[in-house]
Amino acid sequence: MHSQAYRRAFTLIEVLIVVVIMAVLAATIIPQFASSTEDAKESSLEFNLHTMRAQIELYKVHHLGKSPDTVGDATTGYLPQMTNRTNAQGKIGTDPAQYPYGPYFDEVPANPFNGDNSVTEVTATPTGGTGTSGWQYNPNTGEIWPNHSGWTP
Predict the structure, then answer these.
(1) Within a domain: 6
(2) How far apart are CA 108 and CA 134, in angstroms?
(3) Are strands 85-86 and 119-121 parallel, antiparallel or unpaired?
(4) Which residue range(s) make up the domain with 45?
(5) Distance between CA atoms of 101 and 96, rounded to whole angstroms?
(6) pTM to 2 decimals?
């Protein structure tokens, strides 16, 4: 008896059908992931903004209503009184007995849209982002906003 072994393989049509199905799936799924990335950045931005505003308010409670000061310029500005120990007058020190307040956070959180955690001092409510730093901060009022073109206060 003569038996012949047949090898089964995919035909060109079967391979093309699979490629077309994968292309259709990719075209519908990839935009959803891109949207999810933007949603995640937006959620992170709102969380960071809420946290910073709450900590600035706590600072004001501890420091007789005074807001923390900024140091530096538009690209390297930061809030040193928020990341160090302070006394009631806002002076920075390391001795917990003399400087009982803070730090309010380890470092200023980065703006998730530009990855920057520097702070630009402003004197009025901004109408939009300038892109020069991660955050815009008014030390007269203690208000802080993300420095992002898609954000409006």
Answers:
(1) no
(2) 9
(3) unpaired
(4) 13-146
(5) 8
(6) 0.74
Q: What is the mean pLDDT of each run of 10 residues along the chain (153 residues)?
A: 67 90 85 76 92 95 92 74 93 94 93 90 78 86 87 66
Encoding tokens for residue 115? Answer: 């990855």
3-state SS, residue 85 = strand
Looking only at the bridges linking them, the beta strands covering 135-138 and 119-121 are parallel
Assess whether the previous peptide bond of 100 is cis (omega < 30° from 0): no
Number of compact structural domains in the chain: 1
Beta bridge pairs of residue 121: 137
**Neighbouring residues of 119: CB distance < 8 A, sequence distance ≥ 6:** 70, 72, 77, 78, 79, 108, 133, 134, 135, 136, 137, 144
Phi, psi of 122 (to 5 degrees): -125, 160
Is 5 inside any structural domain?
no
Residue the block writes with tokens 């990719």: 26
Note the helical H segments in the chain. 12-62
Tell me, yes or no, whether 132 lies in a domain.
yes
